[in-house]
Amino acid sequence: MDLFHRFLLDQLPKGRHFLLTGAKGVGKTTLSETFGNRFSNRIYLSLTTAADQAIFMRNSNKTEILRAISFLKNKEIRGKGTLLVLDEISSCPAAAEWLYWLLKNPTEPSPAIMAISSLIDPTQPLFNGALQPLLPEYRLTPFSFEEFLSVMEDPPALEAFREAPVPLYACQKLLHYFHQFTLVGGMPEIVREFSRTRHPGKLKKIYENLNETFLEQIEQFQAGKKARQLTAGILLNCYPFAATRIRFNGFGNLNHGSREVARAFHRLEQMMVLRLVYPVTLPTLPLLPDTGRFPLVQMVDTGLVNYFSGIRKELFASTDMNALFEGQIARHIVGQELADLNPPRFWVRNKNQSEALVDFVIPFEELLIPVVVRSGAPGRLRSLHQFVDRAPHPFAVRLSAAPPAINQCKTLKGKNFFLLNLPYFLSRKIGEHLTGLRKYVGR
Predict the structure, then answer these.
(1) Pairwise CA distance, residues 247 & 296, whole Å
(2) 1-21 residue pLDDT tens
């Protein structure tokens, strides 16, 4: 299978305009090439180049833009049979303005337009959802474990992973693959090189180049020299704090106040290289994040976290991710796998000085399900017990290196509940297994 034949391809609308977003390096441009094969022709504009920017900046008559593109690129526009790719549209305000105008004033014959951006500016109508459904957004993230498996040249392993429940005989091999996935991450160029060499030591240059790309993007889009330096400093200091809660004030010993640090973090969020995840304090839907509490940092990719935190050797030698760095990397890769929840939340007890925390809470049907990334006896999961005691249902999930199992447990206060134990590699398939659990227990 082509490495870049991403599962997202089946969701992209042929013949309609849409916005494709994602951090630098997740494969947006390459995906546009694969998607373009579904059209009779493809016209590609790189809006980081002066030549392609000039098409929009020198043509004040917006009705002439499509003709100018066709003429200068020497390609015929065949209505919806043509895919027009506007790569890095956030780099060219004139192109964004033209696309906004076109969406409001559709012309025929107009090509299908795929706008691509690695920067989300919520103040602009192209990026704040104001134009949906005229310009629906699709977010591209690093490879999931299933996508990673699809290029590891082991079809039986991929087939076993897709079974529900997963066969017990396949768990150890899938756990081994998931450990490799956690080590190298899901950035497409990294996965491509690792699938070729199977040697993590050959990936250093690619990691360095990816981070340099992020730093260049900060230089391009962050206004003010001091703000750029702070944003770059925070990025370089963020990796060891992945999957942990942070304070803005004085973060990373950078000697800056909370307001400046928060602005820099939000800029990195707009670049999609990290997310700030805020907790919820209720055990029920809807998810209501408490932005007054300390957030958790979720970086774009666990492989980058491992490399820039300098912990690849320890992870390579470990057989239990929960025993390594107090489970930090295990929690981070699970958070990456759950990224489609946009973003997954965690739970804290609504009480001052309380240390009760559940790693993730995910919506499932009408319920909010607690998920912990922990090993050990169920009776030691005290924070999980506190959530279950408050929840209007008896279901919880634990992710670890152990094979699938269902435990009937009791909280410290005496409430009976069902603990669904799943191996880490099934993080994205929790919903399927919860459906099976509810059928099994008849609730």
Answers:
(1) 9
(2) 455 556 788 889 988 999 999
